[in-house]
Amino acid sequence: MRTLFRRIWTAPGSVYSREDDASAAQLLNATLLVIGLVAPLVTITLSLLQGTGLFSLSSAIGLFVAVAMLVLRAFLVRGFLVTVSWLTSAILLATITGTLFVFNGVRDSNTVALIVVIVVASLLLRERRSIVLITLGAVVGLIVVYTGELAGLVTYEPRPLDPTYAITYVIAFALVGLLLDIAINNLNQALGRARASERELASANEELESLNQELEARVAARTRALELSADVSRRLSTILDQEELVHTVVDQLQEAFDYYHVHIYVLDEDSSRLQMVGGTGEAGRRMLQRGHTIPVGKGLVGRAAETAVPIVVPDVSREPGWLPNELLPETRSEIAVPIMRRGQVLGVLDVQDNEVGGLTTENAELLQSISNQVAVALQNARLFAEAERRAQREALLGDIAQQIQSTTDVDSALQVAVRELGRALERKQTAVRLMTPLVEAGTGGHGGSGDGPQ
After folding, report:
1. Residue 170 needs a FRET pair 20 to 30 A away by CA distance; which of 189, 262, 309, 434 works?
2. What do you get for the CA distance between the two ends of the chain, in Å?
3. Residue 352, beta-bridge partner list
4. In 3-state terms, the chain is what percent helix, strand and coil (to 5)?
5. DSSP single-letter state for residue 436
6. Cβ–Cβ contacts within 10 Å for residue 180, how many?
7. Do 306 and 297 contact (CB within 8 A), yes or no?
8. What is the mean pLDDT of residues 155-178?
9. For 85-121, what is each residue's pLDDT tens digit?
């Protein structure tokens, strides 16, 4: 029963999408229910007290008001908020005015009910113009009743003091108080919702501001990453020495993004191990001194070389395949990006940070872009070194050939060849060993002259 009553009491609010309309509908619904229940009870009670019987004109008016309020509530549930508000005010005003005209005129205790009408209209219509119109209507009604009695159109029998007057005033005042209590309660609820909405808006603004700052930071980081990538690209295009190349990359990455550690590995000749060729800080220097290597397939670096895909680990403590390094005790996150050229892995660019979650897939995208440039630069450096060695060999051979051609005998030519080859190969002792061909000898008899060499 309590659930049914609560559902009836609060039903119209769910019909209206706007918060203001929903609050007004709740108030109007409560008003209709209160008046619809109070009107017949009051009129029937007064009729019995006055001895006019249960089926008197007062009782009929009360029942009419009750039925009218229930019908209006049915329209309220269907969304006719403004129409129902006006009809409720008009029906109450007309009913009270008609009651005054039929019974004792302006001297009747029902006159105080006009105050209820004005209060109800003020709460429901919520507009100054509407309140003025209803107030004028109540005043005009009193004037009409009073004028009718003065003109002799209606005659009222004098009535002695009746306790029902006091009852009518008490009921009217109680009804006004009840309606005002409902209105204030609705107002407080509306204020509470407004404050909650304000808090939600403030919270949303804070989240939006935080998101805006985060986006600005990400845009700034992305801009800086693009600038760094372009700067690295410009520098790498002019570096043809592998050692200078790797040191430039690791130092620039650490300086630009304040990474905990950056180093580069390259595959050895048989592609079974990764040799560290560049690293930042004291740890990088010591690892280079001891010739630090990692087998392919082991740890994050080895896995990146084996799978040819970037390995991103935001929290290395949760990564079972991570290989800790005693020289880098503060490592908390790590990214290993393969350095590839035309599908071939040349090495691995490894970056470590000292914060959990300090390295993400966004960092991996930047590092992948830089590693692609490093791959091109590494290949160019290797091709340049190979071309330089080939040119040196060809120049050496040409110089040796020229010196040999300037000699006059075989011994001098051999001496020049031995000397220059020793210098080129950086050997303290060089020798040339000549193999003499074997000469076949045979015997044969000619006439009777005897045997002899041929």
Report:
1. 189
2. 143
3. 261, 334
4. 65, 10, 25
5. P
6. 14
7. yes
8. 64
9. 899 888 888 888 888 777 777 776 667 777 878 887 8
